[in-house]
Amino acid sequence: MINFKKVLIVVAHPDDEVLGCGGIMQLFLKNNIKFKIIILGEGSSCRFNAKEINSKKVKKIIAQRQDFAKKSFKVLGAKDYLFHDFPCGRFDSIPIIDIGKFIEHIIDEFKPDTLITHSENDTNSDHRIVFNAVNTATRPTPTCIVKNVLTFEIPSSSEWRFIETFKPNLFIDISKFIERKIDAFECFFETEGRPFPFPRSREGLLTYAKFRGLQSGYKYSEAFRIIRSSI
After folding, report:
1. What's the half-sphere exposure (Cβ side, CA atoms, 13 Å) at 2?
2. Residue 219, by phi and psi: left (phi above 0), alpha (psi -120 to 50) or beta?
3. What is the pLDDT of residue 212?
4. Cβ distance 205 to 181 under 8 Å?
5. Exposure string (b/e) for 100-137, b if CB count within 10 Å is 16 or more?
6. Which of 58, 119, 175, 197 has the most CB atoms in a 10 Å sphere around its CB?
7. Least confident of 38-47, 136-145, 188-197
């Protein structure tokens, strides 16, 4: 088992952190493990064309999604977080070295031993770019302080990549925390959720956690893939 000490969670959009690892955050809190959440992109402008993305309407929607995230953090008990403003759906317009350097800067400041982020096996291009940027920022040089890199899955994104699918090798029992995770996501439901059978619904998230539980012997589980781990 990975000995988590200080964890940096790096995600592309507001709500990814809840969907991917809202359960394990509760385990961190229970065990007094310090963690920080970095949200790299604003998460909403991808729904508009290039001419609209700087409009007052879109800026209002972006601010609303941040408000949803802050309410969600209160439910989760997460207090250390940072919003950045990379353009949603357009991470490929930014040199990946700039994204990696931003992550490196946070690593230098926060000094985590563990980093959790998106899977490379995902339909969302921003998620894949974040994974690649994290890989760049956490290269295991002699001076790298990040000893563990894990990835998670995102409902309505990871499972729709029908080839090169997410293959977990670490399962965390979140049976005591599943309701809080779902309550935290419901802060986003107005814009990010839909009724079942959409995966980002109460029943959808329960089904996800039950399925990972079936694989691991827990009632409800969150699944991760260990990319590398050094002892």
Report:
1. 27
2. alpha
3. 98
4. yes
5. bebbbebbeebebbbbbbbbbbbebebbbbbbebbbeb
6. 119
7. 38-47
Annotate 173-214 with three-state secondary structure: ECCCCHHHHHHHHHHHHHHHCCCCCCCCCHHHHHHHHHHHHH
| CB-based contact 29:37 (threshold 8 Å) | no
pLDDT reported for residue 84: 96
d(Cα 48, Cα 200) in Å, to the nearest integer?
A: 21
Q: Give the mean model confidence (pLDDT) for residues 213-228.
A: 98
DSSP per residue over 37-60, as a string? Answer: EEEEE-SSGGGS-TTTTTSHHHHH
Vertex 27, ends 196 and 17: CA angle to 5°?
50
Cis peptide before 197 (omega within 30 of 0): yes
Max Cα–Cα distance, the chain, nearest Å: 50
Is pTM beyond 0.90? Reply is yes
Q: How far apart are CA 24 and CA 221, in angstroms?
A: 9
Which stretch of DSSP H or E encloses residue 76? helix 56-76
Tokens 């999604």 identify what position? 65
Q: 127 near 154, Cβ under 8 Å?
A: yes
DSSP character at residue 122: -
Residue 140, amino acid = P
Check residue 15 and give its pLDDT. Answer: 96
